[in-house]
């Protein structure tokens, strides 16, 4: 069975819905965070807001690339490489969403830094990260959006 690598941070779209990241919105001032604060340990990131309660909200599935880089080194644990072999470099993108926050994530399988530009549009996809004894573990990634008539490098 496929499950998110981190429960409660995103939906997988397995229920027929589109996958989405799950943020938290301060019920006092409306500030949005990702990931959503955990119950009992929440405070609003807006220093002028005394709010401490959040509601869960799905975040925009599309955003614009704020920055990106190429991860040529293997991150430290708890990161697990997708295979038992050597580290496979991957691209990371910081994506600005309509909610005014920037969310970091890997770039979708088959895409790299040559496919990204600051300000270009990307969309959220869910892909396998690794498989363990409980099954396939999923993670969100950012996939470049190509316009009609534009050729993708794939």
UniProtKB/TrEMBL annotation:
Source species, domain of life: Bacteria
Organism the protein comes from: Nocardioides marmoribigeumensis
Pfam families hit by this protein: OB_ChsH2_C
Annotated ChsH2 C-terminal OB-fold domain residues: 57-126
Name of the protein described by the UniProt record: OB-fold protein
